[in-house]
UniProtKB/TrEMBL annotation, chain A:
<feature type="transmembrane region" description="Helical">
    <location>
        <begin position="244"/>
        <end position="266"/>
    </location>
</feature>
<feature type="transmembrane region" description="Helical">
    <location>
        <begin position="143"/>
        <end position="164"/>
    </location>
</feature>
<dbReference type="InterPro" id="IPR035906">
    <property type="entry name" value="MetI-like_sf"/>
</dbReference>
<keyword id="KW-0813">Transport</keyword>
<feature type="transmembrane region" description="Helical">
    <location>
        <begin position="184"/>
        <end position="204"/>
    </location>
</feature>
<keyword id="KW-1003">Cell membrane</keyword>
<dbReference type="Pfam" id="PF19300">
    <property type="entry name" value="BPD_transp_1_N"/>
</dbReference>
<keyword id="KW-0472">Membrane</keyword>
<protein>
    <submittedName>
        <fullName>Peptide/nickel transport system permease protein</fullName>
    </submittedName>
</protein>
<comment type="similarity">
    <text>Belongs to the binding-protein-dependent transport system permease family.</text>
</comment>
<keyword id="KW-0812">Transmembrane</keyword>
<feature type="transmembrane region" description="Helical">
    <location>
        <begin position="106"/>
        <end position="131"/>
    </location>
</feature>
<dbReference type="Pfam" id="PF00528">
    <property type="entry name" value="BPD_transp_1"/>
</dbReference>
<feature type="transmembrane region" description="Helical">
    <location>
        <begin position="295"/>
        <end position="317"/>
    </location>
</feature>
<dbReference type="InterPro" id="IPR000515">
    <property type="entry name" value="MetI-like"/>
</dbReference>
<dbReference type="InterPro" id="IPR045621">
    <property type="entry name" value="BPD_transp_1_N"/>
</dbReference>
<feature type="domain" description="ABC transmembrane type-1">
    <location>
        <begin position="104"/>
        <end position="314"/>
    </location>
</feature>
Amino acid sequence: MLLFVVSIATFAIFFLVPRLAGMSADDLASRYVGKAANAQVIHDTAIRLGFNDPVIVQYGRFVKGIFVGVDRNYGPGVEHCPAPCLGYSYVSQNPVLPDILNRLPITLSMALGAAVVWVIFGVATGVVSALRRGSFFDRLSMGIALAGVSLPIFFTGIVSLAIFRDQLGLVGDVADWVPFSEDPLTWANNLILPWVTLAFLYAAGYARLTRAGMLETMSEDYIRTARAKGLAERAVVLKHGLRATLTPVLTMFGLDLGLLLGGAVLTESTFSLPGIGKYAVDAISNNDLPQVMGVTLIAAAFIILANLIVDMLYAVVDPRVRLA
Amino acid sequence: MAGGIVIVLLILIAIFAPLIVSWFGHPPAEWHRDKIDPAIQAPIGAFGGISWDYLFGVEPTTGRDLFSRILYGARISLLIAFFATLLCVVLGTVLGMIAGFFGGWIDTVISRAMDIFLAFPLLVFALALAGVIPDKAFGMSGDTLRISLLVFIIGFFNWPYIGRIIRGQTLSLREREFVDASRSLGARNHVILFKEILPNLIAPILVYSTLLIPSNILFEAALSFLGVGVRPPTPTWGGMLAEAVHNYDVAPNFMLFPGLAIFITVLAFNLLGDGLRDAFDPKAR
């Protein structure tokens, strides 16, 4: 359902909105030819890219590509693009799916690494703050958390680059991507800055959410029961308190991680990481519809996947939820 | 309440930006190449050339007065954030009330729509939408077009946050006695919605719109940072940061002041929103 809506909406943006704004098929096509092209070349390009067909027909062609694949006539011969075919870039003529899959490991390493850091720090800070409510630690960490949610990543990112990479030389060049399988140390060294800045931003929200949840849970009756039956405080907090608090945290985590995997646009632009988010930005500045379609669909797929995993984790975390 | 004071100051600064700049600065679009070292294109002087004449120093390459550009940037940022939030609040309140009050298939449709909006690759999407619009469209051009476009995009994508809360509140309000009383007196649905239920929603609307403003400011800054915001030479905070990525090493002021401007503004609204929430809902304390 989400996939369908996302693909329709992306298509509408690229075809209906320019039409509403008063652009013709030839105007659209003029974006994908050289500056010196004459009217005939532009017109041929419009026909080759199928811009003269009704939008519905163009969309049908795209969906067909995903389910059965398409044959593409590139002049000297015919190329077959097999079943999950997201089409070919208007600009580089490359098929879209392999391009995206090549960039996936970069975005995955960045997002998952950051997620580990922010969940650990955010939840731990939230729990300690809630248990020592009103203490110096609580006030300090909540102050930092409020600052954290108020800072844009493209500011903290540049500041941290300036300090840690340029002034102190502590970390590697972020833009210089090295796969984990080749050299794990360089991989981590290059990625540590995006991990930490991204985690700082997100951990703040998680700390606030966990703290609010813990404060509520710890005043529940069953916590008193657990204490009354003589459980160690540690077990009361971790097994009874935290477990119930984690449900809303998980919900937020599912959404955040899904959105992040689908293209950490700002993070990757700030650090010039050549991941999916950077690909999306480049695709948009080139008006390259097939690439943008590919990215938004992959992004939506990640959001669905992340929500699915989170739904299953609910049952593990909260004993009141049982999967049918 | 520190947040509230800062916000009032910011709004005054934004409104009187031309006046303040005429006293303490130079017009935001005026180039001062004499303040730039031609060899490295960096400002002459310490920390981006800060002096009594140029309070925040100057921009690299162009030598434009950073102080006046930050002030004028506040106008764009606050203008877009306020109107976008207004649009979110109107859409969210009306649709949330309708969904919560009528229930049934209307509720199903609106709630589904909200779920989809909340789980959507919004930024990529907003980027694409802001990117495809030509420079002249819908009978507008220039800054007017970009500002209305950004207000529309941000408002249109963010209304479900407030819509969900309003729907939940309406669900419980519609079971209350005063609604029954009003209905038994023969009041029609729209009268009940706007005269009975809406007044009870003022507190949550106020709190969540205050909390929505900072996230809309960040959204606008992000779009400007990615190059689809209001077009140069009109100054925006996000746009300045985008350029600062390339030359923060020679002009640290160019990175620091726009970033701090965003930070202070967003923090002030967050503080005010938190304060309002605690005041209206003592339970959440």
